[in-house]
Amino acid sequence: MGGTTDGGGRMRADAQRNRQLIIDAARDIFIEAGADAPLDEIARQAGVGIATLYRRFPDRDALIRAVVLDTFGVMAETARNAEEHGTDAFDALRRFMHGALDAKMGAIMPMLAGRVEFDDEVDQARLAVGVPVQRILTTAQAQGLIRPEAVFGDIAFMVVRLSRPLPAITKILVDDDLAHRHLDIYLDGLRASDPAERLELRPPAVSLADFDKLRGKFANGAVPTD
Amino acid sequence: MGGTTDGGGRMRADAQRNRQLIIDAARDIFIEAGADAPLDEIARQAGVGIATLYRRFPDRDALIRAVVLDTFGVMAETARNAEEHGTDAFDALRRFMHGALDAKMGAIMPMLAGRVEFDDEVDQARLAVGVPVQRILTTAQAQGLIRPEAVFGDIAFMVVRLSRPLPAITKILVDDDLAHRHLDIYLDGLRASDPAERLELRPPAVSLADFDKLRGKFANGAVPTD
DNA sequence: GCAGAAGTGGAGAGAATTTCTCCACTACCT
DNA sequence: AGGTAGTGGAGAAATTCTCTCCACTTCTGC
């Protein structure tokens, strides 16, 4: 498991650059081929030798962790931007969710879960996303824009589901825009409309706090390719 | 590629039974571990020897095809039941989608796409699902229960997305019910509400007819594990 | 019941894939 | 310009998966 933060270390400029190239390539390859994708392929796509990859990331888990932390960083920035530029809290939520789709958050999650230890560093990165999103949601509900029974999990899990790539061949029919279309339908379902005209939500309502249960859990046996 | 329908052939009763055990096990294992899961594991879970599996299904694609056809059969029955028992067309659509989630349709699709040739047999099985679903949708729209811009793809792809399993570790937080909860939110988004109060849907609108484009396409290169 | 046909299991050889090290070479930094 | 940090890629070793072979078991028709 990589040191706390070897990303900010004292490295030669080209090494620093290569490190980021590897992370970017890893994200793409992991999304395409799953968390067990050959590391050679990642190195090739990054344009570096396999040795460079192994020097920087002693094992696969270290690389996965770096990708996860990097992605959380992007997401946190997306949340901040959404909060700042949204015309109201509903619009902010909408901006965040569409942005999260673009960041492919949901394609990264499957790696995170089960492969990365939820220690303090990961937890902090996670909350840097979760806290502003929860704040947006709470505000939107206070303004009567979002149905009051909606919870954090109803945002997070749908982003995950929508941003996971569909099977390759369906690309004949589908591009990334389809997920955005369906997200808008979902968002309309989240609106605070007449309670008589909407379905009553069944459990489980998963709150932001519930995610704390993942702390410390790690490599709990079966880790599907997925 | 297996013969047209070796499912109904003249087989000894126990062989017939084993064949179905293999298909059932394959569905479970494929869902858990992806379409490239070791065949040994499938045989083990089915409680048969690896030789039996190979005798019945000469290669992986034959097995995948059998699973796909079997699943379409279940789905078609679900659609028929929904149409028959729904209190109105919205309710029928709702029943179908929840039922399709339970059948894990979306976990099977990733195999179908890119691994199974869309020949006449597959096409017929596919339409045995698609046609009644389209009919339900059209009826619901005629009755003013579903927004008029919604199309077949808005039903099918969301079922796929919702029924794909989330990463193993999130099972600490999540059970299958969560997908049903989110489906209900989505269904509320599909309702025909005041157009001023809903988001305008962007393209692409994927119709049932668009799926014909998949005919004949097969093994188009990159087939992600997924 | 019995004979014979149909079906079965699992070990293991072979093929394919993946990991990860080593070291001669190159590029940065002061 | 010198020295240190960084690099690439071949290939040995380990791992994983496929798929056949054949002695044995179970069905089915009579």
Plain-language structure description:
2 copies of one chain form a homodimer. Chain A is mostly helical. Chain A folds into 2 domains: 1-58, Homeodomain-like (Arc Repressor Mutant, subunit A); 61-219, Tetracycline Repressor, domain 2 (Orthogonal Bundle). Chain A is 60% helix and 0% strand. Chain A is built from 9 helices and no strands. Chain A has helices at residues 13-33, 39-46, 50-56, 60-85, 89-102, 105-115, 120-142, 152-163, 177-190. Chain A is globular. Residues 1-5 and 219-226 of chain A have low confidence and may be disordered. The interface between A and B is large, with 66 and 65 residues. The first copy, chain A, binds a DNA duplex (30 and 30 nucleotides) through residues 11-15, 18, 38-40, 43, 48-52, 54-55, 60. Chains A, B: Keywords: DNA-binding, Transcription, Transcription regulation.
The tally of domains of chain A stands at: 2
Q: Give the helix level of chain A as a range of percent.
A: 55-70%
What's the SSE pattern of chain A? HHHHHHHHH
CATH architecture of the largest domain in chain A: Orthogonal Bundle
Overall mean pLDDT of chain A: 87
Oligomer: homodimer
Number of distinct beta strands of chain A: 0
Fraction in beta strands of chain A: under 5%
The chain pair with the largest interface is: A-B, 66 and 65 residues
Secondary-structure class of chain A: mainly alpha
Low-confidence stretches of chain A: 1-5, 219-226
Overall geometry of chain A comes to: globular
| Ends apart, CA distance between termini of chain A | 22 Å
